[in-house]
Amino acid sequence: MPLHRFFSTPAALLLGACLWAQPGLAAEPKGGAGGSSWGLGLGLGYERSPYRDFDDKARLLPILIYESRWLSVAGPGLDLKLLPETGPWSVRLRARYGFEGYEAEDSPHLAGMAERKGGVWLGAALGWQGDVGRLSAELLGDASGHSEGRQLRLQWERRYAFGRVDLTPRLAAVSLDRKYVDYYYGVRAGEARAGRAAHAGDSATNIELGLRLGYQLAPRQILFMDVANTRLGSAIQDSPLVERRNVPGLRLGYLHRF
Fold first, then answer.
1. 167 and 159 in contact (C-beta within 8 Å)?
2. Rounded to whole angstroms, how far apart are CA atoms 209 and 219?
3. Tens of pLDDT along 12-37?
4. Which fold has domain 3-257?
5. Residue 59, Cβ neighbours under 10 Å: how many?
6. Half-sphere exposure (Cβ direction) of 81: Cα atoms closer than 13 Å
7. Domain locations along the chain
8. Residue 51 needs a FRET pair 20 to 30 A away by CA distance; which of 18, 34, 111, 219 works?
9. Cα–Cα distance between 21 and 63 in angstroms, integer?
């Protein structure tokens, strides 16, 4: 299911959690080793699509997150923690559903294209927290077999607190292999049209720069704003399906942690 279509369904509850579970927002486990915690909220999200002629609209997104000693759930994402996260290191097995893809009816420029489907991504994530911030690496593969691709995400982020206000800048590089790029941004020979030549995708690396601003209304209530921009890799920019180099996004929301 393409991302913009998914936003209009009740299942957007799942995606909302994934989008809004930024540093400092995740629920913190309570009650010691066996404790758990969760959070509910509401957000407003806007993100441009890289594809041509998409009708990009802001969407209301419910938020649901859950955290315990061994399990972390953020909508369509689930982590199994392999180490007690009492030190600087975290090691997790990760599963999430990806909402990449489109249908031909999603844009006039996609007429005649076969559907590109999202799917289940499985892999692992490694994190380290130190004075310089949090460094993390995530490697996932397409377990659904649609693209048969892989993606590697390397990220740095650091939270700065100023009383009730906190700022968390982040910088990430997302490496997408040839199969991923070819599936979602390639044009097969049978899909070629005037103004849309056949195109074979190649591996690409996207660069994301983001900043989250949080304000603590009460001990367990948070208002936040997240702004980000993703610079698409050259192999994605070269696709005849793509019309921009940069994909900006904005998210506003409220979260209550229980």
1. yes
2. 29
3. 444 444 444 444 555 555 544 457 89
4. Porin (2.40.160)
5. 19
6. 16
7. 3-257
8. 18
9. 8
